[in-house]
Design goal:
Length: 358
Amino acid sequence: MRYLTVKVFCISALCGTFNIKMPKNINVLRGSCVTIPCSFDVESRFENNLDDSCKAYWNDSPSFNSHNAKLKPTKDMTGDLKKKDCTTTFINTNLLQRSKYYIRLECNNALKYRFSQTDDPPSPTLTPSTLEVKEGTSVSLTCSAPAPCWSHPPALTWTPNLGQSQETLQENQDKTKVKTSVISFTASHLHHGNKICCTAAYRKQDGSPDVTAETSLTPDISYSSKDVQISVSPSAPISENQKVTLTCSSNAQPAVENYTWCRADGGALIGTGHTLNITVSTINSNFFCNATNTVGFKASINFQIVMSRSYYLRYSHFFNNKTILHFIVHVLGLILQIHLKTSQFQSVPLVQYQRTAM
């Protein structure tokens, strides 16, 4: 990106008595308009010379007057010179074909512009330029883009769309203007590592297509463990007294520093580390793991090792030893009752009838 550099040069003998204020740098897009802020002061003895006859003229060389000036802005393109406002608007910057321009006031005040053009629009600026926060933090990002053409400031858009934005057109101390867009959102682990981009679209007044420029940042969002899960190897079939390896995995930023393993029935600590080697037991087959990083920790859901040796083992998480004992006693009681009833039925004597001859 090349810039417009403002310097003051003497064109008349009265140069030392004038003071002019202009921005040192102005971004200009070829084919668009540009407004150059400008104000000046004169000695008190020249105040009466600031009347309707004062005009501002632009040229690409320092030796010129009102007759041979290359650019002659009209009244509606120039500020009120009587109020010491020499702000000038060029509707089509294609008219500016040189890198240096001078402005001349008929009140004999002049300055030199070092002026450069580019086909590329000025890039917007993101504030802050980096984003490193914890999940849940309220974040505000500001996108700022120069508005060289005050009547057609750039349109600012955010990608992805993180919510509603607030836009303003602000004036800097040097009288240049800037378009700003502020977006606020709550930092989430879903934002981590995903680029946030601000795009400035500039409209051209010469009928050519709009041009865009963008600036982006990649958020670094720290968060505690997510999706803590346990897997077992080998997966199946698993029998009692078999040795297996349990693995705890999770998604965290920064990475998990410590894994701990506990039994589900009481939470007793039984091991640490990413993996746990155990021998399968019908008594202790429920586990969970904790994943901890610098932000916090999260526990997995209880993990049940399913064994295939028998129906009882496969579904052991539905029963305990006392329930099974009650079940067996109940079944035996039913069998005994059925046996007693059958025995009573078989002991009933049969009534015999004897037929007597008449």
